[in-house]
């Protein structure tokens, strides 16, 4: 960065934007990993059903498979809006 | 016991084949019997990067089908002792590589070589899967750029679940990060993810950083692994990378801008 640019640029450095975006998407993709392939479709359908009855955000349904020894637990978390 | 090293990335065009050629040549130069295997069926290019494209007679798929034996298909490098390549087939049949076939060929190669470097195709389809399946080590080649980092993370997920080591519950595949096309001056300006950022996001061990360099295109134009260009920054960076892989401690030499204070202050 040149001496003069230092005063000119108020834009955030693009690399830090890239890093933040990557941290979010990578964390999200890792949480869905290792589970069965139908998990994303299942998540979407559950969301559709809930949205039929009440208005929730598109990211209101969190779903993951946890492994505990020989046992697999399907965990579904639904966040309802505050004014409910 | 031969060690199988896959060079992989998910995304295309980040430097897998350049890295495979340089890394294989570096291992061979260090005295290890090394073969580099091109898994990119239908899009053979390792031969061109290593400068032996006119010597290809038989390929990987010919050996799997029993139409040639390994010795007929292997091309011995003329510049570096102990170095050979097994070219990919140019067939359009996507199913030409079979798991049993690949296993048989790797077993054959393991009798003659210390290191088997598998140059993976881009993507996560059959060729990429088979290239990583038998691996002991993985070199994950990543550009400091969002799509490449994301794809590398996806590949890391596959390495920990879809490999023979994972399926058998053995020690996991050893993962090593190689960041390529790195531009310290752009990192300094905040325009490019730094090596630290990439390591933090992917949380794997950094093996090497290869600077953006004119030497890479020059080497591929000439059909020479860039590591053999010993005066070039990229060649030296690959040399350090191989040495670190073999257990030597070496500092990262190409993480900072070589430009002086003057040009930093006044731009340029």
Automatic annotation (TrEMBL), chain A:
Coiled coil: none annotated. The keyword Cell cycle applies. One of its GO terms (molecular function) is identical protein binding. It comes from the Bacteria. GO terms for biological process: cell division; regulation of division septum assembly. Keywords: Cell cycle, Cell division. InterPro entries: MinE, MinE_sf. Pfam families: MinE. Prevents the cell division inhibition by proteins MinC and MinD at internal division sites while permitting inhibition at polar sites. This ensures cell division at the proper site by restricting the formation of a division septum at the midpoint of the long axis of the cell. Belongs to the MinE family. This is Cell division topological specificity factor. It comes from Spiribacter salilacus.
UniProtKB/TrEMBL annotation, chain B:
ATP binds at residues 11-18. CDD domains: MinD. Keywords: ATP-binding, Cell cycle, Cell division, Nucleotide-binding, Septation. One of its GO terms (cellular component) is cytosol. One of its GO terms (biological process) is division septum assembly. It comes from the Bacteria. Interacts with MinC and FtsZ. This is Septum site-determining protein MinD.
